[in-house]
Amino acid sequence: MLMAHPAVLRDLIDEYEALAAVGADKANSAQARQHLDDVTYTLCVSTGTRDIDAALAAARHQLPGARPLDDSMLSSS
Questions:
Q1: I need a labelling partner for 62 at 20 to 30 A (CA). Which of 1, 22, 70, 71 fits?
Q2: Which is higher by pLDDT, 2 or 34?
Q3: Is residue 27 assigned to a domain?
Q4: What are residue 48's phi and psi, to 5 degrees?
Q5: Is residue 76's pLDDT more than 50?
Q6: Range of the domain at 46
Q7: pLDDT tier at 2 (50, 70, 90 boundaries)?
């Protein structure tokens, strides 16, 4: 699988978090909601996932400094 460059992932994470922080998903602006949808879609495609939570976890895991043996994404149940 192709992997997105860490700088691209970092930018996407930052952009998603900024949009989420201002409530773009609940905004009256269709443009703001569409931008959040676009960033969400791009994160999912870039990480090979289907939902934003998994995409964010996968993107963060691919960033420099992520612990390669970190099993925090695994469920303990």
A1: 22
A2: 34
A3: yes
A4: 70, 35
A5: no
A6: 6-62
A7: confident
69 CB-contact burial (10 Å; exposed 0-12 / middle 13-18 / buried 19+) = exposed
The sign of the CA dihedral 64, 70, 73, 74 is: positive
User: What does the pLDDT look like over 18-49, one tens digit per residue?
Assistant: 999 988 888 788 898 999 999 999 999 999 99
State the amino acid at position 77 in one-letter form: S
Examine residue 1 and state whether it is found in any structural domain, yes or no: no
Distances (CA, A) of 75 to 36, 65, 71, 72: 28, 22, 9, 8
Q: How far apart are CA 38 and CA 34, in angstroms?
A: 6
| pLDDT tens figures, 42-72 | 999 999 999 999 999 999 999 988 666 555 5
- Let me know the angle formed at the C-alpha of 56 by 14 and 8, rounded to the nearest 5 degrees: 50
Residue 36, in any domain of the structure: yes
